[in-house]
């Protein structure tokens, strides 16, 4: 395992040089704080196997603690197997073998090399870090969302008959929410009954269940290139082969899609039609039609992830064609959720598909998590059914429009190429002109988290593009950093 | 697929003969009610492909509706593809081909034949049906649980800073809950740090994540025989081979375990040490030690599912040895949760394991559901940390003791063999002397859901045993049924 780590070509940003946040008032001793901090860095791969630790003196001076404290911390880390002491040379991060080595057969970890960078970025997204330090984040700042909406709904639910919350609930999901989703989809001209809908723990579980149901190890799954990178790890873990279809501003590269479909005979093509991540572009009607024709010809299923649905102002305002609208859930499986616009923590997503497939997927869901909690589903139901959601989404879009315009202007001013300027959505897929892996590494050293382009592509090749979140671009220091770097 | 259904050897109970619950006051027309009811039965495999429907006249008379109503309902079902009309012979349940047939390659469904019965029982458990009609249920009646505990905790959470609920939360789970679990495990003499704990969507997701991490298709997983049957479908879906280890009153059949381990070289052995499902027996200290020795010798991991932990009065009162207590999470992965004692709907379970494995499993969790919702985890944290949980569990145990004693006496009186009389827990693994598949089928016709023994065994062979829930034995009609059947 450690070997696969070593052989990685892409270097994840390191935070080795930043000072520790040590507190003399904390409940835990300074020694313990240092031990934990170093352990975390090693576990997060920020300190690599074999790398040399700062000397005891360096560490002590840099962090303003006594050398005795550092000696004790290093000693404990040696005892715990995190570090090793090499006579006359100092302390090194140790190659830690898993506790139960024999069970980690090499083929069980085939999927790890591409995963580890993805995991690095995902872990960083979950790190408690101010939003203006994360231009690469895929989420809106919490200040943009509405905590009171959630709190009020929770309070209302706590006043209902609580015995409803004691059982497992419906394996397909809370029925009133599915009825509400039926109405939501009807507005997108997708006709469904509640029986065709299965709720999930976010779109992530939806993708996992669908991929597990329709693929066997060795099968091919097409994804957009670029796209949401968590899928690479998720699908690779199932033993599927992930192949990227170049995504142009108006949808997939159709010639390439037809060519690759003929060669690889994919089982699934997972795509985002409206406000594609990371480009925030939407598919044209013609491309949607052509994509469906190719899917029919080569007999694969399309999984349409519409998580950014409500960041789009609607097809009356801007063109937006969903494949599910054309196909009516015959060959298209439609996924949606509320993590981006309402709250990620509710973990409410859903699948809409044929009646038959919905039954199979509900069974799959039972085998993996039994049911999903109704609490989050009741919260979403309440906010949707009482009309709050629509108003909230309107406000979000207005705010996003202002931030997007400002960000584009600023990016252009500092010399970046905004050739794909999206009229909606939260992302800009900017071309910096520099290798964004290196840029991200430098940014990390300054305390910022960027999302380098390489991560979004299944082949993970270095890229000059990166994804920028228009709602997380308020820190002047970050702008200064970008300006300096890109004018060198 | 339909072929595999036809070739099944075990006949799931049918409800064909029971009258429909039709309402003239309902919002939906009688025709629609009939259509839906028949659709559900077909989907639930209660009406089998190829079976003949009652004639229009029979159906109308039996349900007290006009023949026109039935004609219209049958016609709609024909149009929807659920039924077919055979000239001069009547209506038949149609063989429904999946919408997307080509993608359902036969090997993708290898796991289905055993699954379908399990799914049948699981689906029935989720059916809204009074608890006294479900002696086979694995849950406590909602009246036994404490809805106010949940409601109060939810209310308190809604008053906290709601912005905490907008982000994804910690991929390992809500930290204060993990700290609380550290204390809980310390009482069982299992030493862990919060970093060694990963929360999950119930024990079900914990099992799924662990199995996915440690096995490849073709690998062998040992389970207790009998055991919680959902695992058969879950593991088979991963392509694992599930083999049962005979479970005796004091733990696994050690000779058999050693023998089978040498032959099959399993990757995992999933077992319940304390209050095993369905026998409610606990493992002896000697058996626990022997099991661990065999695990070491043949180098497999033990997954210890301790979901019934708090139904046990504690090792000071009755012997109870956990393998994790002996092994200290070296070779044992410990699973727990609160679905049985607090609320299934919260979907809060957890994994405790080595620091290294916890990191890997947290990554796996990210790939399948990103995070778990913090709401349920905050609810459990509150109830645990404020001391309510302990008192609630004490009350449950007292109530269960009374119900168990009463149930055992009654079972013996009607001539059933209670050879394994557990001193704690909610199940009795009773020997009826009759094939419980047939008994369950007859009970279903009377509106009761039993849990026949065959379901709990990986080989699914007919059995004279069944699992009885002592908390769901209050219906005199059900006792009359058992008495009649078993004295014939």
Task: Please characterize this protein's 3D structure.
Chain A has 488 residues and is α/β, with parallel strands linked by helices. Chain A folds into three domains: 2-109, Arc Repressor Mutant, subunit A (Orthogonal Bundle); 112-144 and 391-487, Alpha-Beta Complex (Aspartate Aminotransferase, domain 1); 147-388, Type I PLP-dependent aspartate aminotransferase-like (Major domain) (Aspartate Aminotransferase, domain 2), CATH 3.40.640.10. Chain A has helices at 2-6, 30-43, 56-63, 67-79, 112-126, 147-159, 175-187, 202-214, 230-237, 254-264, 285-297, 323-327, 355-369, 374-385, 388-413, 436-445, 476-487, and strands at residues 83-86, 90-93, 197-201, 220-225, 241-248, 251-252, 268-271, 301-305, 332-337, 348-352, 427-431, 451-452, 465-469. Chain A has an eight-stranded mixed β-sheet with strand order 3-10-9-8-7-4-5-6, sandwiched between helices. A three-stranded antiparallel β-sheet of chain A has the order 11-13-12. In chain A, helix 9 links the parallel strand 4 (220-225) and strand 5 (241-248). In chain A, helix 6 crosses helix 14 (374-385), helix 7 packs across helix 14 (374-385) and helix 10 (254-264) runs parallel beside helix 11. The longest helix of chain A has 26 residues, at 388-413. The first copy, chain A, is globular. The model of chain A is unreliable at 1-21 and 97-116 (pLDDT under 50). At the A-B interface, helix 5, helix 6, helix 8, helix 9 and helix 13 of A face helix 5, helix 6, helix 8, helix 9 and helix 13 of B. Chains A, B: Keywords: DNA-binding, Pyridoxal phosphate, Transcription, Transcription regulation. Chains A, B: InterPro entries: Aminotransferase_I/II_large, HTH_trans_reg/aminotransferase, PyrdxlP-dep_Trfase, PyrdxlP-dep_Trfase_major, PyrdxlP-dep_Trfase_small, Tscrpt_reg_HTH_GntR, WH-like_DNA-bd_sf, WH_DNA-bd_sf. Chains A, B: This is DNA-binding transcriptional MocR family regulator.
């Amino acid at each position: 395992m450690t070997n696969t780590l070593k052989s990685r070509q892409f270097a994840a940003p390191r935070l080795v040089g930043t000072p520790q946040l040590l507190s003399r008032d904390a409940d835990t001793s300074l020694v313990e704080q240092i031990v934990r901090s170093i352990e975390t860095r090693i576990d997060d791969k920020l300190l690599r196997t074999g790398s040399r630790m700062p000397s005891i003196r360096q560490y002590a001076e840099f962090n303003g603690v006594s050398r005795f404290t550092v000696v004790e911390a290093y000693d404990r880390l040696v005892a715990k197997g995190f570090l090793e002491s090499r006579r006359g040379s100092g302390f090194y991060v140790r190659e830690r073998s898993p506790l139960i080595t024999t069970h980690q057969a090499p083929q069980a970890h085939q999927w790890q090399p591409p995963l580890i960078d993805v995991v690095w970025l995902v872990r960083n997204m979950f790190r408690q870090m101010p939003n203006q330090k994360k231009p690469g984040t895929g989420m809106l700042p919490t200040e943009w969302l509405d905590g009171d909406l959630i709190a009020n709904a929770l309070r209302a639910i706590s006043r209902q008959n609580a015995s409803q919350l004691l059982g497992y609930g419906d394996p397909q999901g809370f029925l009133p929410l599915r009825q509400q989703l039926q109405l939501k989809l009807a507005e997108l001209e997708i006709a469904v009954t509640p029986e065709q809908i299965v709720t999930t723990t976010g779109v992530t579980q939806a993708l996992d269940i669908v991929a597990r149901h329709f693929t066997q190890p060795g099968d091919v799954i097409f994804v957009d290139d670029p796209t949401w990178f968590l899928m690479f790890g998720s699908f690779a873990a199932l033993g599927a082969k992930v192949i990227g279809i170049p995504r142009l501003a108006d949808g997939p590269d159709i010639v390439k899609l037809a060519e690759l479909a003929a060669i690889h005979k994919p089982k699934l093509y997972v795509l985002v039609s409206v406000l594609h991540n990371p480009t925030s572009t939407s598919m044209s009607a013609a491309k949607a039609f052509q994509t469906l024709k190719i899917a029919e010809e080569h007999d694969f299923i399309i999984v349409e992830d519409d998580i950014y649905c409500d960041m789009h102002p609607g097809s009356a305002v801007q063109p937006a064609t969903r494949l599910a609208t054309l196909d009516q859930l015959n060959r298209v499986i439609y996924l949606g959720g509320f993590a981006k616009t309402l709250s990620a923590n509710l973990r409410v997503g859903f699948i809409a598909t044929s009646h038959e497939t919905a039954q199979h997927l509900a069974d799959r869901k039972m085998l993996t998590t039994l049911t999903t909690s109704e609490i989050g589903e009741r919260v979403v139901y309440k906010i949707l059914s009482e009309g709050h959601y629509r108003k909230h989404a309107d406000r979000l879009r207005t705010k996003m429009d202002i931030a997007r315009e400002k960000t584009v202007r600023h990016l252009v001013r500092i010399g970046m190429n905004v050739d794909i300027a999206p009229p909606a959505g939260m992302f800009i897929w900017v071309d910096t002109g520099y290798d964004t892996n290196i840029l991200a590494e430098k940014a990390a050293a300054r305390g910022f988290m960027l999302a380098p382009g390489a991560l979004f592509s299944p082949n993970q090749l270095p890229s000059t593009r990166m994804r920028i979140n228009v709602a997380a671009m308020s820190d002047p220091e970050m702008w200064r950093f970008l300006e300096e770097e890109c004018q060198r």
